[in-house]
Amino acid sequence: MEMIASALICSVLVLCLSHLCHPLSVDYYEKKCPKAEAAVTDSVKQAMASDNTVPAALLRMHFHDCFIRGCDASVLLNSTKNNAAEKVGPPNVSLHAFYVIDSAKKAVEELCPGVVSCADILALAARDAVALSGGPTWDVPKGRKDGRVSKATDTRQLPFPTFNFAQLHQSFSQRGLTVEDLVALSGGHTLGFAHCSSFEKRIHNFNSTHDVDPSMHPSFAANLQRVCPVNNKAKTAGTTMDTTPVKFDNAYYKLLGKGKGLFLSDAALMTDSKAKALVLKFAGSDEEFREAFVKSMIRMSGLGGGGGVEVRLDCKVVR
Ligand code: HEM
Ligand SMILES: *[C@@H]1O[C@H](CO)[C@@H](O)[C@H](O)[C@H]1NC(C)=O
Ligand SMILES: *[C@@H]1O[C@H](CO)[C@@H](O)[C@H](O)[C@H]1NC(C)=O
Ligand SMILES: *[C@@H]1O[C@H](CO)[C@@H](O)[C@H](O)[C@H]1NC(C)=O
């Protein structure tokens, strides 16, 4: 035990010495690359103009990045001959729009070669995705470095849509995130789309006494059963995460309160008194949701404390 502890302390020291503990700062690129942020915003805007699924994809990509090995752009790496990357891990079904990060990186490399990390670009793109969808905006602390490791098997560390409250709580608190962070960040589900596989256990064969999860609103469940019939063969079938999937708003919380949360993990927020009170607060006030979301995004965006070891030149490959 003592050996493990001192090994841990040792590795933390080594990590700090190799510049891995540097704090993030809002003005990190102010001198190094003042036009970087605007270039990222332009790339996101341009991509959104022809594909309205882009913002949801970027927000989820950043979440997956931060929850595995900290926000170090591990989610962006391609597999190699000897390594299956996070991208090909099981929950990859809807991770897409990697091309947006590539075009932002290309624009930023033209301005300041080798300076802006892919992890920072992804954090900025996620912020832009929210802001350009009608959500709040905020200053993103920057200075992350890109990691060199990405493993498909690590995606098991992501929370599953079948998680109950205790499991969600554990997944977030392991990363130093609170119940308020959990509830506010789940509001990311105001954007985007989910495939049947992410929620079909709730609407068919739920358990031995109920075919449908009884916490679901009956007409909501019936609708989902139509979209996702038993033995549904269409792998692309699914539904939007809330009723306004390209608008960043608090509709997600309003629906949760009515038994119209899509995943078990969404509905689970109504099963804990503290979480439920927050859901109801955010359902009643878009302003309070926006404030809480910004606070929690900055916390999630800081996971890993700056992440990796290098600034990649191509976000898909290590240097
Ligand atoms: C609390 C635990 C969470 C679980 C269990 C979870 C799970 C999922 C699942 C299963 C999907 C649908 C995948 C599919 O069927 O294609 C999804 C979509 C999505 N998630 Fe989460 N998620 C969680 C938290 C978050 C957080 C913290 C964010 C961001 C702040 C987020 C943002 C999104 C977005 C934007 C989509 C839509 C993606 C798209 O349309 O491309 N999720 N999530
Ligand atoms: C990364 O993978 C994508 C999708 O398989 C492929 O189109 C692309 O060429 C790869 N890029 C690099 C640099 O390996
Ligand atoms: C998604 O993950 C599955 C299971 O690991 C894998 O077989 C599939 O190739 C992946 N899909 C993509 C697009 O990477
Ligand atoms: C099925 O789920 C419902 C709702 O969660 C629960 O009340 C019931 O006890 C469960 N039945 C079994 C057999 O687990």
TrEMBL record:
<keyword id="KW-0106">Calcium</keyword>
<dbReference type="InterPro" id="IPR010255">
    <property type="entry name" value="Haem_peroxidase_sf"/>
</dbReference>
<feature type="binding site">
    <location>
        <position position="190"/>
    </location>
    <ligand>
        <name>Ca(2+) 2</name>
    </ligand>
</feature>
<dbReference type="InterPro" id="IPR019793">
    <property type="entry name" value="Peroxidases_heam-ligand_BS"/>
</dbReference>
<keyword id="KW-0964">Secreted</keyword>
<keyword id="KW-0376">Hydrogen peroxide</keyword>
<keyword id="KW-0325">Glycoprotein</keyword>
<dbReference type="GO" id="GO:0006979">
    <property type="term" value="P:response to oxidative stress"/>
</dbReference>
<keyword id="KW-0560">Oxidoreductase</keyword>
<feature type="binding site">
    <location>
        <position position="72"/>
    </location>
    <ligand>
        <name>Ca(2+) 1</name>
    </ligand>
</feature>
<dbReference type="GO" id="GO:0046872">
    <property type="term" value="F:metal ion binding"/>
</dbReference>
<keyword id="KW-1015">Disulfide bond</keyword>
<comment type="similarity">
    <text>Belongs to the peroxidase family. Ascorbate peroxidase subfamily.</text>
</comment>
<comment type="function">
    <text>Removal of H(2)O(2), oxidation of toxic reductants, biosynthesis and degradation of lignin, suberization, auxin catabolism, response to environmental stresses such as wounding, pathogen attack and oxidative stress.</text>
</comment>
<dbReference type="InterPro" id="IPR033905">
    <property type="entry name" value="Secretory_peroxidase"/>
</dbReference>
<keyword id="KW-0479">Metal-binding</keyword>
<feature type="binding site">
    <location>
        <position position="74"/>
    </location>
    <ligand>
        <name>Ca(2+) 1</name>
    </ligand>
</feature>
<protein>
    <recommendedName>
        <fullName>Peroxidase</fullName>
        <ecNumber>1.11.1.7</ecNumber>
    </recommendedName>
</protein>
<feature type="disulfide bond">
    <location>
        <begin position="196"/>
        <end position="228"/>
    </location>
</feature>
<keyword id="KW-0408">Iron</keyword>
<feature type="signal peptide">
    <location>
        <begin position="1"/>
        <end position="23"/>
    </location>
</feature>
<dbReference type="Pfam" id="PF00141">
    <property type="entry name" value="peroxidase"/>
</dbReference>
<feature type="binding site">
    <location>
        <position position="244"/>
    </location>
    <ligand>
        <name>Ca(2+) 2</name>
    </ligand>
</feature>
<feature type="disulfide bond">
    <location>
        <begin position="118"/>
        <end position="315"/>
    </location>
</feature>
<dbReference type="InterPro" id="IPR000823">
    <property type="entry name" value="Peroxidase_pln"/>
</dbReference>
<feature type="binding site">
    <location>
        <position position="70"/>
    </location>
    <ligand>
        <name>Ca(2+) 1</name>
    </ligand>
</feature>
<feature type="binding site">
    <location>
        <position position="242"/>
    </location>
    <ligand>
        <name>Ca(2+) 2</name>
    </ligand>
</feature>
<feature type="binding site">
    <location>
        <position position="159"/>
    </location>
    <ligand>
        <name>substrate</name>
    </ligand>
</feature>
<dbReference type="GO" id="GO:0020037">
    <property type="term" value="F:heme binding"/>
</dbReference>
<feature type="active site" description="Proton acceptor">
    <location>
        <position position="64"/>
    </location>
</feature>
<keyword id="KW-0575">Peroxidase</keyword>
<keyword id="KW-0349">Heme</keyword>
<comment type="similarity">
    <text>Belongs to the peroxidase family. Classical plant (class III) peroxidase subfamily.</text>
</comment>
<feature type="site" description="Transition state stabilizer">
    <location>
        <position position="60"/>
    </location>
</feature>
<keyword id="KW-0732">Signal</keyword>
<feature type="domain" description="Plant heme peroxidase family profile">
    <location>
        <begin position="23"/>
        <end position="319"/>
    </location>
</feature>
<dbReference type="InterPro" id="IPR002016">
    <property type="entry name" value="Haem_peroxidase"/>
</dbReference>
<dbReference type="GO" id="GO:0042744">
    <property type="term" value="P:hydrogen peroxide catabolic process"/>
</dbReference>
<dbReference type="GO" id="GO:0005576">
    <property type="term" value="C:extracellular region"/>
</dbReference>
<feature type="binding site" description="axial binding residue">
    <location>
        <position position="189"/>
    </location>
    <ligand>
        <name>heme b</name>
    </ligand>
</feature>
<feature type="binding site">
    <location>
        <position position="65"/>
    </location>
    <ligand>
        <name>Ca(2+) 1</name>
    </ligand>
</feature>
<feature type="binding site">
    <location>
        <position position="249"/>
    </location>
    <ligand>
        <name>Ca(2+) 2</name>
    </ligand>
</feature>
